[in-house]
Amino acid sequence: MSNYNNFKKKLLKTKAVKKAYDDLGLEFALVEMIIKKRLKQRLTQQQLAKKLGTKQPVISRLERGTYNPSIKFLTRVAHALNAKLEISIS
Fold it and tell me: For the chain, which domains are there?
């Protein structure tokens, strides 16, 4: 996980990357939570995909932020990671 955090810190030093990250804050926050949960459980993308009954490229697209998942899919991801999906509007 430290490699991920170091990589993120390095990227965010670039102004253009930082602005894009801030503009997409919620999406990046969600992706970051999923990646951290997966890594904490020592699961590969392939293993998570298998638990979800999908393929590894789907997880890759999700983690890159190039896939717009449904709430149903995110609920399945949370369940596979022994987590709970919570959504709120305030």
Answer: 2-80 (1.10.260.40)
